[in-house]
Write a structure and sequence with these properties.
This protein has 288 residues and is α/β, with parallel strands linked by helices. It is built from 8 helices and 10 strands.
Amino acid sequence: MQNFEVLFDHGEPSAVESPAYRPYGNLGFPDPPAERPWIYSNFVQSLDGIVSFKGKHAAGSDISHSEEDRWLMDLLRAHADAVLLGVNTLIDETQLGNRERGPVFRIMTPECRELRQQLGRRREMNLIVTGSASLEVDDYRVFDGELVDSAIVTTRMGAKRLAEKQSQAHVRIVVAGEDKLVDLAEMARILRREFGIRYLLCEGGPTLYGYMAKARLIDEKFVTVSPIEIGRLIPPEQEPTESEKRGAVKVRPTTFSAPGFLAENAPWWTWVSCRRVADHQFSRYRRR
């Protein structure tokens, strides 16, 4: 792995001294708000803003082709009390088929695990957000508790459905909202008040991120731009997955898949830092 070339960096100083920072350089975060966590996201995208080929090459690694991008994910996870993910991300990555019963979203590199301990972070935690709560937890390794703690964030209606499934009894449920849509602002308050989460990393997917951004809950974002151009319309010759056949998916997602903003209220961002490794760009933005 190569070291990151720092083009500029106006971020906070690192909270501790650690050899884990050597490849990347300085990385710190401001104090979180009193009522909710400081929430930051991380995405890799193509030059034309696409975050997934979809089909059998739907993973972010199919866009990044970068060891440094994968390592940066670990560095960002080391600073987070928990990782927030939409249920579709869990389902999509499980369907890629290279891991039995799907992935566990956790730190892989030893130096980043040691940094997490230095920072005083708790055991790693995955939070899966779903409004319908139709998932069967026994189908997914992330809920086993073997490698990370986990919880499901859902609505009151979703929690009722989960309670009807005895296999779900060992998984903690966070209730935020009443019907089909999770109340993300209430979720953030609960995570701070009841879980003590001060720093929350949102890893998507695009739908969850879009609604989080729409609710102005994303404080900053880390964006890796990979030197590849993909196109939004899925070409007819691309082989779809079984779930895509049922849903007739025709377009590839950007980072933001939710109702957008008006020109009068669209948020602007401050460019906090920029690094590069060869032709990959690694930027950090903070919402003004």
